[in-house]
Specification:
Elements lengths: L1 H24 L6 E8 L6 E6 L1 H9 L4 E6 L5 E8 L2 E10 L5 E8 L4 E5 L11
């Protein structure tokens, strides 16, 4: 009986944790947000560590990079910019299929080199420079 109660409690805690995680990741983004960094090697990239514009400026003043995310009305990331030393280190511009899957990414690196990659609907795009 103890095992059953512990198992039930674990399922309940897991469910609450999952619900909170989903809520945090499905929140409505502002049109422009600032982040401490990014994570992962799939596209669109996952911006992490939401910060204020003032925190981004303070980060830059210390010589560290930060990210800027631009979101559309459907809560999708349509542009991200990594800033370093007051300059663009890289930028991604994203377009999507009506289904919400990534259609195309245009990448500009710090040297101004531009690459565009198109994806078939349903493909899992990997990170590219």
């Amino acid at each position: 009986m103890k095992t059953f109660i512990v198992l039930l409690a674990a399922i309940g805690v897991g469910y609450v944790g999952w619900t909170l995680w989903q809520w945090a990741h499905e929140r409505k983004h502002d049109p422009i947000e600032y982040f401490a960094g990014w994570d992962g090697y799939t596209l669109p990239i996952r911006l992490t560590g939401l910060i204020t514009k003032a925190e981004a400026e303070a980060t830059a003043a210390r010589g560290h990079p930060y990210m800027i995310g631009y979101f559309d009305d459907e809560n999708r990331l349509v542009r991200d910019v990594k800033m370093l030393n007051g300059e663009v280190f890289f930028e991604h511009l994203y377009t999507y299929y009506p289904s919400g899957k990534l259609r195309r990414v245009t990448v500009t690196n710090g040297d101004g080199v531009v690459n565009t990659h198109a994806y078939q609907e349903g493909a899992i795009p990997g990170f590219s420079w």
